[in-house]
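Possible regression after last week's pipeline update?

I re-ran a chain I had predicted before the update to compare outputs. Posting the input and the new output here so someone can diff against the archived version. Not blocking, just want to make sure nothing changed silently.
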Amino acid sequence: MKPDDELCLCFHVSWRKVINYIRVHRIQRPSQLAECGGAGTGCGWCRKQLERLTHLVTEVPPPSDEVEQWLADRSPNKEIYAQGRSKYRQELGLEDRPSDRSS
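New output (post-update):
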């Protein structure tokens, strides 16, 4: 993943935005990220990543000049992530709308 790719596909919240929100607001619990553009409050697919990212950023924050490599080393492939979400939503009986699909 790249920092500007979407972590929350329902509300189009980027990985960069979540990382910065965690740092600036000193987030301790992933549920606090609901205030970050609604991240995690849609279908629920991104909640595990939000939890993991909260822990990672809190424990070992990425250096601001190395965030792209830091994230690439710690995040899933963009296409596989989007495919996993589609499968997750199908299993829940939720239909993807065109605006929900990752490009």
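Follow-up from reviewer: compared with the archived run. The radius of gyration is 13 Å. Marking as no regression found.
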